[in-house]
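REQUEST ID: PR-0412
SUBMITTED BY: lab tech R.K.
PRIORITY: routine
TASK: structure prediction, single protein chain
INPUT:
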Amino acid sequence: MPPYCPGEAPPGERELFIALASAPGTDGWTALHSLAIAAHVRQVEGEADFVVIVPNHGVLVIEVKSHTTVSRLPDGRWKLGSQPPTGRSPFTQASEAKYSIRDYLIRQRIDLRPVPLIHAVWFTHARARSALPPSPEWHDWQLLDSEDLTADAAKAVLRTLQAGSNHLRTKIKGFAPGLVGPNDATSAAIASSLRRKFELAIVPGNLRRARQTQLTAFIDEQYDALDNMQQNRAVLFTGPAGTGKTWLAMEAARREAALGRTGRLLCFNRLLGRRLSLDMAGVSGLRTSTFHQEILRLTGKQAPRDASAGFWDRELPDHAVDMLLERGETEAADFLIVDEVQDLAREPFLDILDLLVKGGLRDGRVLLFGDFERQAIYDGADGQERLRRQIPHLATYDLTFNCRNLRRIGTVVKLLSHLTPGYRHYRRPDDGVDPSFLKYLRGSDQSAALADAIRVLRDDDCDLDEIVVLSPLRGRSTAETTTDPWLRQILRPADGVTAPRGRVRYSTIHAFKGLDAPAVILTDLDRAEAPNFEALLYVGLTRATDRLAVLMEEQTLLAAFGGNA
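STATUS: complete
OUTPUT:
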């Protein structure tokens, strides 16, 4: 509470928020973030960074320090990062917040006798245990650091509460004999007293701002990936959908351009290319487009209206290779960044990429981003092996944190797509809403079910322009062929990155690959109608950030859930 972390919160608080929200084994816990304390025991007012209420274990008040360095000066003052030295100990801050909260709860007539009320300091970005010598000012178990955050935040909380309870038993005669609280009722009363229910009501606009903040904030894994960009000349970043590959590709391009270098940021998909061009507009020295748009520009060719696959896969690439060889290195840039590389890791395309960067793929500055698990929907061969043949010294970095989807959507993706090992953690806190699956008979009209799904999402505070309808079928999808008057009024093709106000976009799954939307409805999911069904299902499911509805043919649905649908 609240169910999102404000973007202006210090980095340590954001990371602890994410760690607690995504930690397994925390059902029934309540974490209050940034709890204001009007009646503080020492100051005019104060704040507790986190109050974690764990049924049957206790309540932990946490003071968070995000500084990367921490030390005690010879005169006893604290030196935290680049801040001026201070005589006020973070452990004193945590203790005063704890006693202020205790006094308030007692005034609210909440029985705290069996409840361990413990305080601790969490240095989220420093290995404080090794930096700080033992001191009579705090117990060892009251000090948590970056290793606790990355290992398992929930276990660190439980360990601290257990140690704190043991300490209270040695100091307070008869403390919690045979019972350690709070029980479920007392936990709810503590949470309700400290943060009244009206604070849980978030208007849709705030939800959208919170979602955007969550989707754009980097976490430790992304920062490690950025470090690898600097340490290796050629890197392949791989990971399932939603692990932040496109965000990293854009950040990599900004960093390279900031060094005064020229380069290209290319992708495969047309709609993703439009989004990248908009987001990267104004970055000096960078050319952003789809791969095919770039070779059309270089060759001066125009695509025929009825261009076949042969034109895109052979004729145009062959012409581009001939032209680039004639021009020598005049078109080669300082760096090359490719998103969706799994769809471009084919011989004619790799030959062109090799000629677009100084030193070629073997010796050039090359950063590649791709999902080779399920998203290679245009070429089933092993693209990673081809890349390694072209780039012998290619370093690989695996991304495992899901930065896009809520946990319940990611769980469905892992189940239906058989991802191994899948996502290690989810950055965004879950909101408890399950994806919905609706079955239809093969050949039947899905218009009524589609209209109902849109209305349900609208009633759930989704604006119509936040909803996207996706289908594996081109030219004959439910959204394109429906005769329902209301649907025909609100549905519009997804020709751009954003939707017209009050309209629902629709697209093929192929065309929407690389993009996402707050709410996604999948239609026409029939294994008999869609080649490469598993890959298309995976891509479609992972487009949804917050809400997902799936219209699936009855037998396909039964097979997907192993006969338990």
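NOTES: Residues 232 and 305 are 42 Å apart (CA to CA).
REVIEWED BY: pending
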